[in-house]
Amino acid sequence: MRNLSIATLLTMLLLALTAQAARKPSWVKQRPSDSNAYIGIGMAMKKPNDLQHATQARNQALRELSAEIQVTISANSILRQFENNYELKESFESNVQTSVAQTLEGYEVTTWEDKTQYWVMLKLDKDKYELNRHMTLDKARRTAWSSIEAARSATERNNIRTAISHYIGALQAIEKHLQDDLTIKTFDGSINIGTTLYQDIQQLLKQILITPEHTTYTLAFTQQLRQPIKIRAHFGAKADTLRAIHGLPIIFELTRNGGDITNRASTEADGSTTCFINQLSSKRRVQELQIRLDMESLLQNSIQNQSLTNIFFHASAVPQTMVILELNKVKAWFNQSEEVFGGTYHAAFNNQIKSLLSDSYFIFTTHPEDAEYVVFLQTQFIKGDEKIGTGYSVFVVYGSYRITISNNANRTEIFADTIDRIIGMQPGNYDYALKNCRDKLKDQFLQHTLPKLDSVDM
């Protein structure tokens, strides 16, 4: 009786599995083939308390569907126009299937599921796909051409910011069609959108001139600039046809360590705008202020493909200029001692450091009472071992220094730095090793000590 019950249960289970298998559609059992359609199938396992299986299966089916669609690169495409640009090519190849999947529409959706699996089949008629693709491409070309015409019209009215925005709109319209033929027929004949757009943008950028009122300004160390830095923006191909640009976004950037400055501004009706420098983080004697067209504000991440932006608005083509900032240096007295192999030397190393400090921060005076600060540099070079090899000897020298800066009025130490036991090695004799050690110690000063002085409040 017991054996009969087990047999009955097995029979019922087998019948249930057979019935379930019979209910499975044929496309789940075996992938269908249709020469007139693209097909993508996705499957996801169901998990307790997880409703993502439908999305996962659909995304998998979309990827498979897009992989079936062969992408052809037209001879009149942007990819052909810039075929030597590796960055653009790599970006396109890595995102091509994703781009295709994002543009797919009009496909049929079929689903099937049981207790453990969820299946999705997407089917897209090839003729319908080609029709939709051509319609989408034609719309993109017409939108881009309309934006180019609007940009040209804005340029004629001297509305340069609006012109740039229209050109960005044209680039945005064709961003997903890098592989397609971008030729369009106009009243003037056939025009390639990609080529025309690139040439127009380069010509526009070339005619934007950003000019500082002065190329060099003199500042005190921590004081506000008495005369703010003023620039003007003009547009034109020749000096006698220049027109002031209104509303052009400008960005100001210090090339070293930053500071409290006006970072962004827009030009007034006369093409002018002003950067106020309140304080500089670096105390270097000569610094640079870079001034350029603020493409970040104009683009506002509207173009997803950064490689495309880099081509049409390359950094080297963006209008820019430079202003030199010269800082008034403070007076200091240089006190030093340099010990070489136990004896006092003629300060060959210390004089090099003094020269570097003079170039960067201080005017050194020979009268201590006139100085605002006292710079004290102690340097020591010690003989190391003579390493003897077969037919040669290598000499070793150790070098160290300690530098301090103090306020001369109240004797308060405001800066100190120490570099210890830098090794110099050279064959021949100790003098060669000494020179090698001095060079290495100087490199340490340039790389480690000098940058720290930027943060010292003097």
What would you say this structure looks like, in words?
It holds the Pfam family LPP20. Residues 1-21 form the signal peptide. InterPro entries: LPP20-like_dom. By secondary structure, the chain is of the alpha+beta class. The protein folds into three domains: 30-206, Acetamidase/Formamidase-like domains (Endonuclease I-creI, Roll), CATH 3.10.28; 208-327, Sandwich (Immunoglobulin-like); 330-455, Double Stranded RNA Binding Domain. 38% of the residues lie in helices and 32% in strands. The strands form six sheets. Strands 17, 18, 19, 20, 21 and 22 form a six-stranded mixed sheet that branches. The chain has a five-stranded mixed sheet with strand order 7-16-15-10-12. Helix 6 packs antiparallel against helix 7, helix 6 packs parallel to helix 8 and helix 7 runs antiparallel to helix 8 (193-206). The chain is extended. The chain starts with a helix and ends in a 6-residue tail after the last helix. The mean pLDDT is 87.
Ends apart, CA distance between termini:
103 Å
What is the radius of gyration computed over CA atoms, rounded to a whole number of angstroms?
Answer: 36 Å
Most strands sheet: 6 strands, mixed
Q: What structural class should be given to the helix and strand makeup? A: alpha+beta
Portion of residues in helices?
Answer: 25-40%
Number of helices: 12
Tell me which CATH architecture of the largest domain applies here: Roll
The fraction of residues assigned to DSSP E strands is: 25-35%
